[in-house]
Specification:
The structure is a single chain. By secondary structure, the chain is mainly beta. The protein has two domains: about 30 residues; about 230 residues, Exo-inulinase, domain 1 (Jelly Rolls, Sandwich). Helix content is about 10%, strand content about 40%. It contains two helices and 17 strands. Strands 1, 3, 4, 6, 10, 11, 13, 14, 15 and 17 form a ten-stranded antiparallel β-sheet that branches. Strands 2-5-16-7-8-9-12 form a seven-stranded antiparallel β-sheet, with no helix packed on it. β3 and β4 form a beta hairpin. The longest helix is centred in the first third of the chain and has 28 residues. The N terminus is likely disordered.
Length: about 270
């Protein structure tokens, strides 16, 4: 009887520890939330009714090969129906524009890259912020003019590869007081390995500052996001007052040839 009671106690203890670890994992995803904060769930966990799809070479709203989908409460970029890569970059735009906010995303890369996908697009996606509208994109345009917060994944034993980098399709920024015209700049983040979920945030303050975070740690900072006069769409997107600084814009995620899961996409509006 004593042995049975000891065994039962061990089973209960293991169960409690397991449940505690699950709870702590859930709390980690919510660790940056503060009492009274009203986070908007851009992805509602059920459908894509609040989003617009735009693929290169396809009319607005055409979800090519059902690439963007919701399964089991996860927003998926899936290449299940693709035989091989054909250059059709895709973007999924949220319906509203924003200026001052914090954007929090939980993502992971899964499976293999579609056959023929670009080498640089392996385990690659992005959060396109301060972007142009989906309606204003040209039929054969690769990427929306925007600030890209680049999401990258690594593989165990394959070297370092930072995430939350900066890329600038049709744009420039100021960093350390200098105009940055280089297309991509690496962040200070650690490599995020294999198929693990990653929690990232972006703090956006209109045309003033943008900060990138991984698991609550700042990994990049820059200022004055702006249109690039060298870009082919510059004149089209430049406002009537000639101010090339980007004060607000759309938010979108990418389809660049690698399967990507998004568990959470949420936003907290900040005071200007």
């Amino acid at each position: 009887m004593i042995r049975y009671n000891n065994y039962l106690l061990q089973v209960i203890l293991v169960s409690v520890l397991f449940l505690s670890s699950c709870t702590n994992a859930d709390k980690k995803q919510q660790s940056s939330a503060k009492p009274g904060e009203n986070w908007i769930q851009l992805f509602n966990g059920k459908d894509l009714n609040d989003w617009q799809v735009k693929f290169k070479g396809e009319v607005l709203g055409e979800n090519y090969k059902n690439t963007f989908r919701v399964e089991d409460g996860i927003l998926r970029v899936s290449y299940e129906n693709w035989d091989e890569w054909n250059g059709k970059f895709g973007h999924l735009f949220y319906k509203d524009t924003f200026s001052h906010y914090r954007l929090r995303v939980v993502y992971r890369f899964v499976g293999a890259q579609v056959k023929g996908g670009p080498g640089w697009a392996f385990r690659n996606n992005g959060l396109m912020i301060h972007g142009q509208s989906a309606e204003s994109m040209e039929l054969d345009q690769d990427f929306p003019t925007s600030i890209e917060v680049q999401l990258l994944g690594g593989i165990s034993g394959k070297g370092e590869r930072s995430t939350m980098n900066l890329c600038t399709p049709g744009t420039n920024v100021i960093m350390n007081g200098e105009l940055i015209e280089q297309y991509c700049i690496n962040s200070k983040s650690d490599t995020q390995l294999d198929d693990e979920w990653v929690i990232v945030e972006v703090e956006v303050r209109g045309d003033k500052i943008i900060r990138h975070f991984v698991d609550g740690k700042e990994v990049m900072y820059y200022e004055q996001p702006q249109l690039d006069p060298r870009d082919q769409y510059y004149e089209k997107l430049l406002p009537a007052d000639g101010n090339k600084l980007l004060t607000k814009g759309t938010i979108s995620i990418q389809a660049e040839s690698h399967n990507t899961d998004f568990k959470t996409i949420e936003l907290l509006v900040l005071e200007e």
